[in-house]
Every structure is written in C-alpha cells, then in structure tokens.
Amino acid sequence: MKMDLIQPFIGSLDTVLAEMMKAPATIADLAMEEDGYRRKGVAAVVTFKGQIEGRIVLDMDPQAAAKVASCLAGAEVDAAEPIVSEAVCELANMVIGNAVTQLNDRGFQFKVFPPSVLTEEQCAKAGQDSEATILCFETASGNVYLNVAMHYHARRSRERGPVAVA
Amino acid sequence: MKQFEALTRKDSQPVRYLIVDDSVFARKSLAKMIESFGGSLAGEAGDGCTAITEYARTKPDIVLMDITMPQMEGIEAVERIVQEHPEARVVMVSSVGYQDNILAALQKGARHFVQKPVKPDALYEIIRYVLNDDSVTAPVGAGESSR
C-alpha cells in the first residue's frame, strides 16, 4: 500500500489524539497484517466505499479508551463502563472523517459509513486485493492501534494500470 | 469549559438548539458547548428521521446536524427540514469535511459547516454569524466573559 494513502490516517489520528487526550502520541511500531487482525482492547470499525475502498479499525488499550471517554464526557469514566466503546466509535469517526477529507482534497471520492463497535476477538483477514497496515501509537494512557486495510476500486485500478500498446 | 458571552434571541430568551448526532458522546459534548454559549437544549436526535420529527415538535432556533448517521443521513434530513421549514437554521457538524459534502449540505439548505473535533470558539463564531444573519441579535448576556 502506498504510504501517501496511509499518511492522512496517521496525521489525522495524531491530531485527534492530541486534541482529545491533551498529550502527544508517537508512532511506536508499523507492521503489515499477516493474518486476521486480533483485537487488543476496545475497538471500532469504519468502512468506506468509493475510488478507494476498505475498512479501518481503531483499537485502544482500555485505559487509553477511558481517557478519551472522560475527555468527551467531561467527567471521569471508568474503563469498565460500556460507554467507553461508544467513545472509541466517535474517535474513529473523527479520525477517518478527517483522513478521507484530506484524500478527497487529492481527488479521491468516498462514502463513509457510521462506525460500529468491534466485538470479535479476531477480524477476518483483509481481502486478497487489500493490503492491511497496523500502526501502533504510544500515549501516556496506553497504546492506540490503527489497522488500515484498503484497495483501489476495480475501475480505478484499471484506470491506473499499464496501458496496452498495440 | 470556557464560558462565552451569552448568545440570546431578540426577546432575550436563550437560543434553543436541536442536536442531531448518532453518537451519544458527540451530543453530550455539543450540549456542554451550547450551555457555555448561554443556550438551551430543545431536543436531541440520533438519526435524520428523528431529527425531522423533533424539529417539527421543538421548533429550535439552531440545528446542529451530523452527516454520517444510520437510517437517514444529515444531508437528506436538512433537505427535508428546510423544505418543510424554510426558516430553519441548520449548521452541519461532521468529521467528513470535504468539499462535495459541504457543497451538497449548503445546496440543500444548511447555513454553515464545522468540522469535528469541534472547537468551541469556532462553533460559537459560526452560530453567532448564522443567528445575526437571520436578524437574531447576540448581545452581551449574563455569561461570564473570558473573550
């Protein structure tokens, strides 16, 4: 996957985490997904369709998720409270929304679908035509993982493919 | 949260808001902001269909409307609200801020757009602009001013 497609998601997560958690986040690790993604904490998934299609999983250590929930609620929220997953959904919505806005400015058109809580322990492996990248961000409250799996829509792929010469 | 100069209607009553967002947290966060602006919450909705009925029921001064929602998205809800109530003042509040979305919302009758995460100062200025635009004054009220 081209890094210039992933970069908006990194930048967006960095900005939104800094705004929500009032502290910087640093990238600790970047890996390609080998098998289906294994959830590590409280996670939300957002899908998008258009000239690039795919899904993003935002996965947070429970303490980091509780910190975001506390910031959004304006009051202390315990990591065990069920509303923490709702907070992760809203954070995912912001991150993906800001990233696709940047990609749209570069000519890619999308439709983003509402986030949902990821309850399965393990996601299905990204499709054969998708590449999935897992980014790990370190924050003072715990790690935040961003799993980005996307591919060019078939028609766009053909447009970008090599041109046959007679 | 920072307190702003109170935005009021011409009759000195608090500005009444309808908040439409499928996220409970987003609704809570916006409710806190409008409280800091001196406003009052007229109603809430978690999707576009409910927003239409809540608008008719509460007749708010301002609607803060998310775009990406289940059942009916914000842009369609704006269109239907404005068709029924041409005086409606709707401000779109969404994380997806690309030009096509903004243009579509404005074409359907939205008055303004603000991108998430929402900064209270930005939202305050937008609401003041939208209210002034429709002959509703924003005098300095009883709110503690820190601006």
Structure notes:
The longest helix of chain A is centred in the middle third of the chain and has 23 residues, at 83-105. In chain A, strands 1, 2, 3, 4, 5, 6 and 7 form a 7-stranded antiparallel sheet that branches. Chain A is globular. In chain A, β2 (42-50) and β3 form a beta hairpin. Chain A contains 4 helices and 7 strands; from the N terminus they run αβββααββββα. Chain A is an alpha+beta fold. Chain B has helices at 24-36, 48-58, 74-84, 99-107, 120-133, and strands spanning 16-20, 40-45, 62-65, 90-94, 112-115. Chain B has 147 residues and is an alpha/beta fold. In chain B, α4 (99-107) links the parallel β4 and β5. Chain B has a 5-stranded parallel sheet, with helices on both faces. The chains are: A alpha+beta (166), B alpha/beta (147). The A-B interface holds A 16, 19-20, 69, 72-74, 83, 86-87, 89-90, 93-98, 100-101, 104-105, 109, 112-114 and B 1, 22-26, 28-29, 32, 68-70, 94-100, 115-117.
Keywords:
heterodimer; A: alpha+beta; 37% helix; disordered C terminus; B: 147 residues; alpha/beta; 5 helices; 5 strands; 39% helix
Helical percent range of chain B?
A: 25-40%
**Major sheet of chain B:** 5 strands, parallel
N/C terminus separation of chain A: 30 Å
Cα separation of the termini of chain B? 13 Å
Q: Return the average pLDDT of chain B rounded to an integer.
A: 88
Mean pLDDT of chain A: 83
Oligomer: heterodimer
Q: Radius of gyration of chain A in whole Å, from Cα?
A: 16 Å
Order of SSEs of chain B = EHEHEHEHEH
Helix segment tally of chain B: 5
Shape of chain A: globular
Which spans of chain B have pLDDT < 50 for at least 5 consecutive residues? 140-147
Percent in strands of chain A = 25-35%
Task: State the helix count of chain A.
Answer: 4
**Strand runs of chain B, count:** 5
Helix vs. strand class of chain B? alpha/beta
Categorize the overall geometry of chain B.
globular
**Mind summarizing the main beta sheet of chain A?**
7 strands, antiparallel
Largest interface: A-B, 26 and 22 residues
How much of the sequence lies in strands of chain B comes to 15-25%
Q: What helical percentage do the residues of chain A reach?
A: 25-40%
